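Continuing the series of single-chain predictions for the mutant panel. This is the parent chain; the variants come on the following pages.
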Amino acid sequence: MKRVLSGLLARTRLNIRYVPCALACFLSLVATLAGGWTAAADFLAAGARPDGTRDETELAEDAEERAGTAEAFTGMGGSNTGLPSERPGETAEEQATPELFYTVYRVRKGDMVSKIAEEHGVSQDSIISLNKLRNTRTLQIGMLLKIPSITGILYTTKKGDTPESVSDKYRVSLEKVALVNGITDNEIQTGARIFLPDAKLDWITIQEINGDLFRKPLRGGYYVSSRYGWRNNPFSGTRTFHNGVDMATSPGRAVYAALDGTVVRTGYDVTFGNFIVIAHHSGYQTMYAHLSAIHVARGNRVTQSTKIGSVGNTGQSTGPHLHFTVYKNRSTLNPVSLWN
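Parent structure:
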């Protein structure tokens, strides 16, 4: 008997440990059922039928309410005073956009475009654009420059251009563009020249015009033995066109890429000896000739820090030197006007 009672007590203690868990589950079930009953009561109170459908009157009322909500988001406002934009609490003078007009400046000794631009409170881009300058290093004393009253550039419209698309392209205010050019709608003729307030030329154009696009392929220790242009050919004695710059120096000196790019050709030529051609952005290519050694191959990516070859005396050459040529869209340019 004592053994039976002990077993019953043991089983009872074991079951008592599970009472809290069972109680918690029971309470959770009750809460869930109560929530469902409350939701059902709310649904029925809203006028729905027990099967979840609603009558035609209620559906019509819902549709009317949704239409009213949509109308609330179709409002527009604004005045019909035109440009410039109105700003509450400011006078007409405060709201006015600066007027565009031009003055003429005569270049003096020692002038640079940057200095002239600073004196007139405009950007270099403005002076370069308005005067179609192709090289700021060639300013001549007495040259007349057109100076705008506000910063911006001239733009010649292309087919398909609109005031809005041009403004977006140069990230400038369409309102300002319209004001200074007397534009009254989003239309403009092809070939029209318009002034774009606050617009800038792209950095490649600025570097090219300022002569800062390329770095010299030799790092010092040379002299220019033959310039770009017409000269007496040292082999024939006749006047011929020299399409690059000859940089005389000691043999074996390192030659570097003048601008980041990709090697497109290497080899040997009877006239130029060992040579390398590198392609750059914007249609530029550079050639390095009369090399004693070539350290790159076709397809290699190079930077201005890449040693691409060594100065030599190969091909038609009177002594060790580097022949350096710059091409733009397959035509040669004077390297001296493009390097710093």
